[in-house]
User: Which sequence fits this backbone?
């Protein structure tokens, strides 16, 4: 592996623990002004000291995040459909590698929809991105999106994750499901979990804990952080689970302790 690729991967996955807390705030690319991100900078800037990586769109990066910010960026480069479209997540390439380089990103993220009618489109576009990204030593994160009517189980997640890795992804982002060890054990590249819809804080912390114990190297979490009653306290609790193996109870105690500021 080339130096640039290794260096960028080490920016995303912290070398001291081999894990990562990626803060996902890319929702606007298909959901518009998502609850909590209406004024994206106001929400995100106080969270950045605790995030290992920030995942977002090029527009959000340019309009809301000051270039002085010292956080590795993972740029979402897929899109094309909105929540209003029944073919949600039938995505193609929406940002060039040239622009990703201009934005000095540590990685690029692309959603594939395995099992959907249009899976081929998303997979072929993803491999185009991989080829371009590899030319410049940029890691790719495959987001294994799941259609509304599709079953979320370990069998499906292993299929989608293994495919993403074999197609050339550097990291796979998938959803936590029961039997997650199978997903991790059959995927040759590191796995991070998405948070999914907002859950009560103890449940989200337990999900993160279970994923880490099953072998995930971290989270790429959005709504369960920025829609929390206290996002700054929540990201610290998630970070303790990911980097310090806090139990769900210990992490929830930390959340309560941090609520309302230091
Ligand atoms: C869609 C995505 C989202 O844009 C987002 O990153 C998910 O974050 P969360 O589910 O934790 O709110 O990846 O597939």
Assistant:
């Amino acid at each position: 592996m080339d130096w640039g690729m290794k260096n960028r991967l080490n920016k995303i996955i912290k070398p001291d623990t081999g894990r990562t807390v990626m803060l996902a705030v890319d929702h606007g690319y298909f959901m518009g002004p998502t609850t909590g991100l209406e004024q994206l900078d106001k929400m995100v800037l106080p969270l950045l000291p605790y995030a290992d990586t920030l995942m977002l769109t090029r527009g959000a990066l340019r309009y809301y995040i000051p270039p002085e910010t010292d956080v590795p960026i993972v740029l979402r480069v897929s899109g094309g459909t909105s929540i209003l479209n029944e073919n949600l997540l039938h995505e193609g390439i929406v940002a060039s590698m040239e622009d990703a380089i201009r934005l000095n990103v540590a990685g690029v993220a692309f959603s594939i929809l395995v099992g959907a009618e249009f899976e081929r489109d998303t997979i072929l576009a993803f491999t185009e991105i991989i080829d371009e990204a590899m030319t410049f030593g940029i890691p790719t994160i495959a987001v294994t999106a799941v259609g509304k009517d599709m079953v979320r189980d370990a069998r499906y997640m292993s299929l989608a994750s293994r495919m993403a890795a074999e197609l050339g992804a550097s990291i796979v982002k998938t959803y936590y499901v029961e039997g997650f060890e199978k997903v991790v054990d059959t995927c040759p590249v590191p796995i991070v979990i998405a948070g999914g819809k907002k859950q009560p804080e103890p449940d989200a912390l337990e999900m993160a804990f279970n994923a880490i114990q099953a072998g995930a190297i971290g989270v790429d979490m959005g709504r369960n952080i920025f829609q929390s009653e206290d996002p700054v306290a929540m990201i610290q609790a998630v970070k303790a689970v990911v980097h310090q193996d806090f139990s769900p109870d210990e992490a929830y105690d930390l959340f309560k302790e941090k609520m309302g500021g230091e």
Notes: The CA atoms of residues 44 and 226 lie 8 Å apart. The mean pLDDT is 96. The beta strands are 20-24, 53-56, 73-76, 78-79, 92-93, 107-112, 140-144, 171-174, 191-194, 218-221. The pocket of ribulose-5-phosphate is lined by residues 24, 26-27, 111, 143, 145, 194-196, 221-224 (CB under 6 Å).
